[in-house]
Amino acid sequence: MSSPHPQHWDPAQYAEHARFVSDLGMPVVELLSPRPGEDILDLGCGDGALTLKLSQLGCRVVGVDASPEMVAASNALGLTAQVMDGQTLTFINEFDAVFSNAALHWMTRPKDVIAGVWRALKPGGRFVGEFGGYGNVDAIITAIEASLFSRRVTVASPWFFPRPEEYRALLEAVGFSVEHLTLLPRPTPLPGDIGGWLQTFAQPYTSALPAIERPRCISQIVTALRPVLYDATGNWHADYVRLRFSVTKPQTAL
């Protein structure tokens, strides 16, 4: 089995094919219930769309993301953002809250992520987020793996999609108090066809192929998914399942 290939983030491509990610993130902002003057870490800030909203609400926000290109896009909005792996956070007791939308499933060492968030939070701080949960994009993954298998290529999953009870146990193991944790099936309309989604999000799979073969592979996957994810009105959707949560670091925590 080959190792996952890297994911490259292009802000322009993301804006074209994936703007729905931040557009659908406002319920997570509402769950965070940010207050003016709070210090907030946006973990996996991407191009800063939700970081900007938090800033406009009067919060002091720091964004971190593993992609230099996405951090540059955030900085271009006048935001404070830096390149940092979410699995190796370096902050100590600095934030009233850590917020994350549609990023944690890219971090396949969840224990390291949660431990870093715990260290970053002040006592009484909140960790609120949403990411892909168990069953997320199952149909898409099945079609991708079938197409690669026909080419005698196998790629390990680049994603962490936990069951609710699995993620709760990880959070509670470090001392977080869980207030809210729910698995939400959410079929999500796409701005174009599923090919744009694949080009944006499935690079760890498709980049295992020679560049000349990738368009044909994507076309094959699109064909396989048409009966499943293309509706009678001519619109595509992704079979998303999201895990949304809100936890607190106790006031007595060191």
Give a topology summary:
Blueprint (H helix, E strand, L loop, with lengths): L10 H7 L2 H4 L2 H7 L6 E5 L5 H8 L3 E6 L2 H9 L3 E4 L11 E7 L8 H11 E12 L5 H12 L14 H11 L2 E13 L4 H8 L1 H4 L7 H16 L7 E12 L6
Parallel strand pairs: 1-2, 1-4, 2-3, 4-5
Antiparallel strand pairs: 5-7, 6-7
Helix pairs in contact: 7-11, 9-11
Fold and architecture overview:
The protein is an alpha/beta fold and 254 residues long. It has a domain at 11-136 and 159-190 and 239-248: Vaccinia Virus protein VP39 (Rossmann fold). It has helices at 11-17, 20-23, 26-32, 49-56, 68-76, 110-120, 138-149, 164-174, 194-201, 203-206, 214-229; strands at residues 39-43, 60-65, 80-83, 95-101, 121-132, 177-189, 237-248. The longest helix is centred in the C-terminal third of the chain and has 16 residues, at 214-229.
